[in-house]
Amino acid sequence: MLSGAQPTADSYHLGNYFGAFKQWVALQDEFEAFYFIPDLHAITVEYDPAQLRERTYIAAAQFLAAGVDPDRSALFVQSQVPEHAQLAWVLGGVTGFGEASRMTQFKDKSARSGSDSSSVGLFTYPILMAADILLYQADRVPVGEDQRQHVELTRNLAQRFNHRFGETFTVPEPYIVKATAKIYDLQDPTAKMSGSNQSHAGVVDLTDSPKQVAKKIKTAMTDSGSVISFDRDEKPGVSNLLSIYSALTDEPIEAIVAQFEGKQYGHLKVALADLVADFVGAFGDRTRELLDDRGELDRILAQGAAQAREVAAATLDLVYERSGFVRGL
Ligand code: TYM
Asked: Full-prediction pTM beyond 0.85?
């Protein structure tokens, strides 16, 4: 199993936690797991090198704070495993231009900045993501809903390569937990929670102070009416709050709805604000502790990269062989 989350902000947010990290942690006992920080993906948009380095450490600390256990899973930085870039080049040869052009994330991002200021790297980004996954012969890729199309592309590339050059790659399945596949912005509960949303008022970062969290939850956009019930179309705001409540407590939505029967939206918000503030408060403390020992983070990442390279090098070797490259002595 393999997954990653881009180091493109000073903190991950609740959407990343519920859509991805929570699944990663739950699955690491059952699977041989690889979790990585895709820094090569992060340079496909404008960025600052010093900030990227800092954000990569923050990412490592937050993976660990979420519960990724480096004794059970390989935790590494993508650029420390050169096979990712090497395999991406080979896969570029079996990717259609039209196929890559249909990736909605590319279309959204390039529409935002205009095609002249979008990089070629942003366009080929999904091919690198396919390489990330296929190098480890991953069976499952736990991600949020927004990554489904990229995993579909990965499946197509794997099948095509296998068909043309002989059985080489495992064809991966996306692993998307429906209840938390898409956590929405608190201010605009029809848009996904995302670090690139214009306003940060609806995005709960995992390093927010308990006070900031409480404010964001209490000022969340709710819907007309006053009955607390789960209905994505009619009550997107309340439904999002209920999803977060359920994800945090592991209680089914119906039980939470029953618990708040006859109560107002405000009651739900106050209870949820307390829960999220406690969770994020503890998460932030743990992250800061981990960030205090960079030497230890470097050690964990080096160990993860060594584990990753063992598997990645074997796959790349097979790919080079199948591709017809002279392997030398
Ligand atoms: P990224 O960095 O945008 O997001 C990391 C993970 O968080 C999930 N996610 C969400 N889940 C639920 N609700 C939300 N509001 C929400 N926002 C984000 C994402 O679906 C993702 O699982 N291209 C990837 C990174 C990547 C990758 C990979 C992932 C690179 N190579 C290989 C898996 C396998 C990305 O940009 O995710």
From this structure: yes
- Residues 60, 80: Cα–Cα separation, whole Å: 14
pLDDT classification of 160: cutoffs 50, 70, 90: very high
How is the beta sheet containing 73-77 ordered, strand by strand?
Answer: 2-4, 33-37, 73-77
Question: Can you read off the two tokens belonging to residue 170?
Answer: 């495992």
pLDDT of residue 322: 97
**Nearest Cα residue to atom 19 of ligand 1:** 144
> Residue 182: CB within 6 Å of ligand 1?
yes
**Nearest Cα residue to atom 24 of ligand 1:** 5
Helices (H), 5-119: 14-16, 22-27, 39-42, 49-66, 83-92, 97-101, 104-113
Q: Which two tokens stand for residue 273?
A: 């604000």
Which residues lie below 8 Å from residue 77, measured CB to CB, with a gap of 6+? 36, 37, 39, 56, 60, 301, 304, 305
Q: What pLDDT, on a 0 to 100 scale, did the predictor assign at position 114?
A: 78
| Terminal CA-CA length for the chain | 33
In sequence order, the 6+-apart residues with CB closer than 8 A to the CB of 168 are 161, 162, 315, 318, 319, 322
> Which of 324, 322, 315 has its CA nearest to residue 134?
315
Q: Is 4 in the pocket of ligand 1 (CB under 6 A)?
A: yes
Gap from CA of 17 to ligand 1 centroid (Å)? 10
- Tallying the residues shown for the chain, one arrives at 329
